[in-house]
Design goal:
The structure holds 2 protein chains of 2 kinds.
Chain A lengths: L1 E2 L2 H22 L3 H27 L2 E4 L10 E4 L1 H28 L4 H20 L3 H20 L5 H30 L4 H7 L7 H17 L9 H7 L2 H26 L2 H7 L2 H21 L4 H22 L2 H32 L10 H4 L1 H15 L5 H15 L3 H27 L2 H18 L6 E2 L8 E2 L6 H32 L5
Parallel strand pairs in A: 1-2
Antiparallel strand pairs in A: 2-3, 4-5
Chain B lengths: L1 H5 L1 H19 L3 H23 L29 H31 L4 H8 L1
Helix pairs in contact in B: 2-3, 3-4
Classes of the chains: A mainly alpha, B mainly alpha.
Chain lengths: 520, 125
């Protein structure tokens, strides 16, 4: 055990920068982006330093205001949250780089406020991950959610209404969480996670504790869009500005998954969640339904961003299945799938954002021959899609492998079948996009292309790569990629998927192995 | 009956919470939904505050102040201050959620010129 101020710095740096941004932006608007970039770079470096310390010496603690744990707020970083905090800060940094041009195009007059809220959202997410205090987690949950409501509401078309629905359902989720905290407090008299895990075993048969636990699961389930509670997600993620959905889709729901793991296996001892009440069994079956239904809904969509949003619902199912299996391989798969989802979803939403940047639409049927115009973007899409399906060199293959191993270990053959079936459904909905963008025959498409071009211009896209020839000939398509800052982040995400896939055995043996509770 | 009366604070908070929940789920008007949300959150604050209350207890301030607390502190004589402190934070969260939601409602009204959910859905079709 080491005490170090590093965990608090991960949160404080973006928080203070968020308040500096309006001041700096008042003076010079362009500096906002660079300040965001600098703050997040520092956050990433500190997170990596914390991860190194954790791997070398075990959990890092920090006592706020130097008050000892059960009384004061404590920040604890162990293997699990060191891993998650590195992922979250890194993804935020890459998305921040990506956001520059996209925000300039979509939200021209709102850059200053955008980056301020953007950093507040990241502060909330990182805070949720590093804190060791139940109530502090609620506060950060609300900081992140409020920033997310605001960011989603500035999107196009139905965004305000989608955001309003998210406010209502998100508030119910947060209030349930708060009630859970209240029930734990009246029964156990503590808010510190480590302290609670010591006190609670004597109270496991108390009805108050069981009700608190149910409130936690339902509340966090709402925040992370677990299947029957996912109604707010597709609209919110579809209508949000590209940069926002690229940030929120890979991070918010995954932090919810982390919170669920933390509550089920740290605050409550695993044997409570597994044996005393059958919550892991219930969660696994809910997850199975989520995986199938999410994928089927995704197949039914014609809008690329909406399809990805339903895919988020399905992927949450995978992570929850890993948690529900509650054995070593299953939980390893769940934690690795958080990594996979963070990189893959940010990559795919970034591709969607890049297409919107050029085309002004995310309707799949406008993607004809897109690979000729945007080869790098579409290659990143292919890698992301492969990882989502689970094709070997990508990290998606390894997380699904662990989930299948976990299901076999638990002798749940239905789950094995469902994971495979859901992967097949993934193939179906990604193949549709691949077919349209890569394989659609040109001759058949010429008349369509004219209509498409009209749609582009109506939607305000600046697709300069597509030009019609004079007369009746087919349209020519020249290479016309998105700006460099977007390309760099796309390449980083796509390369990350491949590299992390190759390194995944190392990641499991150095970090995730210690993140899984020892009783498994 | 005894069960209801001895725990009346919990019954009141549950009733209030369900009123709020009903309004959030069933009302078609967005402002009514928001009022429901506010009742829902306030009910939880009431619950927290009521858990801190004790019969015959006084305010949690030591008579002789800093560091001179020579007499033993009996927890039973003082109201538990922690739920109050937590709820101060929760009230801040409540107010800011309400503010953000109202701002979103203004955006919706500018866009659709109505706040009835079914009319908006009709318009967006």
């Amino acid at each position: 055990m080491t005490t170090s101020p590093l965990p608090i710095l991960i949160v404080v740096v973006p928080l203070i920068s968020a308040f500096l941004i309006p001041i700096v932006g008042w003076w010079k608007r362009n500096l906002c982006y660079y300040l965001t970039f600098a703050a997040l770079s520092i956050s990433v470096l500190i997170s990596i330093a914390v991860l190194n310390t954790v791997v070398a010496h075990g959990a890092v603690h920090y006592y706020l205001g130097n008050w000892d744990p059960p009384w004061g707020i404590e920040y604890v970083v162990d293997h699990l949250n060191a891993f998650v905090v590195v992922i979250m800060s890194f993804i935020s940094l890459v998305v921040a780089i990506y956001s520059k041009r996209s925000v300039e195009q979509e939200l021209a007059g709102k850059i200053v406020y955008f980056y301020c809220t953007f950093l507040l959202l990241i502060t909330g997410l990182l805070g949720m991950v590093v804190t060791g205090d139940m109530f502090n987690l609620y506060v950060f949950l609300e900081v992140a959610s409020l920033a997310a409501y605001a960011l989603i509401a500035i999107g196009e078309k139905g965004a305000p209404l989608a955001s309003f629905r998210y406010v209502i359902l998100g508030t119910i989720g947060a209030c349930f969480y708060l009630l859970g905290v209240g029930y734990l407090y009246i029964a156990a008299g503590s808010l510190n996670m480590a302290d609670l895990s010591q006190i609670l075993p004597d109270l496991y048969h108390s009805k108050v504790i069981i009700v608190a636990f149910i409130f936690f699961v339902v509340g966090v389930g709402l925040k992370m869009a677990l299947f029957p509670l996912h109604a707010w997600l597709p609209d919110a993620y579809t209508y949000a500005p590209s940069a926002v959905s690229t940030l929120i889709a890979p991070t918010m729901t995954k932090v919810g998954c982390y919170v669920l793991i933390r509550i089920m296996f740290t605050v409550f001892k695993p044997h409570f969640s597994i044996e005393l009440i059958p919550v892991t069994t219930i969660l696994s079956w809910i997850a199975v339904v989520a995986m199938i239904v999410g994928s089927i809904f995704a197949i039914a969509q014609t809008d690329f961003k909406r399809m990805l949003s339903y895919s988020v619902v399905a992927q949450i199912g995978y992570i929850v299945l890993g948690i529900g299996l509650a054995n070593r391989a299953g939980l390893t798969g769940a934690v690795l799938h958080i990594l996979n989802e963070a990189f893959t979803k940010s990559c795919l939403f970034a591709v969607a954002g890049a297409i919107v940047y050029k085309m002004g639409t995310s309707d799949m049927y406008q993607f004809r021959n897109l690979y000729k115009m945007m080869p790098v973007t579409m290659t990143a899409f292919i890698i992301g899609a492969f990882s989502m399906i689970g094709i070997p060199p990508t990290v998606g293959f390894f997380s699904k492998l662990y989930l299948i191993l976990g299901s076999i270990h638990a002798k749940q053959w239905v789950f094995v079948a469902v994971i495979l079936l859901s992967s097949v459904l993934n193939v179906v909905y990604f193949y549709r996009v691949i077919e349209l963008a890569f394989l659609q025959p040109r001759e058949l498409a010429t008349k369509k292309e004219r209509e498409v071009l009209q749609v582009y211009s109506q939607n305000g896209g600046n697709a300069t790569g597509i030009r019609m020839r004079d007369g009746e000939g087919p349209a020519t398509i020249a290479m016309d990629e998105v700006p460099l800052s977007m390309l760099v982040s796309l390449v980083v995400m796509a390369a990350g998927i491949l590299i992390l896939g190759i390194l995944s055995t190392g990641i499991v043996s150095t970090v995730i192995r210690f993140a899984v509770p020892t009783v498994f | 009956m005894e069960f209801v009366i001895s725990k009346f604070n919990y019954w009141i908070y549950i009733t209030l919470m369900m009123i709020g929940f009903y309004a959030m789920m069933r009302k078609r008007n967005l402002v009514k939904k928001l009022v429901g949300m506010n009742i829902f959150q306030t009910a939880i604050i009431l619950y927290f505050i009521s858990t801190a209350a004790k019969k015959g207890a006084t305010i949690p301030i030591m008579e002789h102040g800093h560091g001179e607390a020579v007499h033993a502190v009996h927890a039973a004589q003082y109201v538990n201050p922690l739920p109050h402190v937590l709820m101060l934070t929760a009230i801040v969260v409540l107010v800011s959620t309400f503010g953000v939601a109202l701002a979103i409602i203004i955006m919706i009204h500018r866009k659709y010129k109505t706040l009835e959910e079914d009319e908006i859905l009709e318009l967006t079709k």
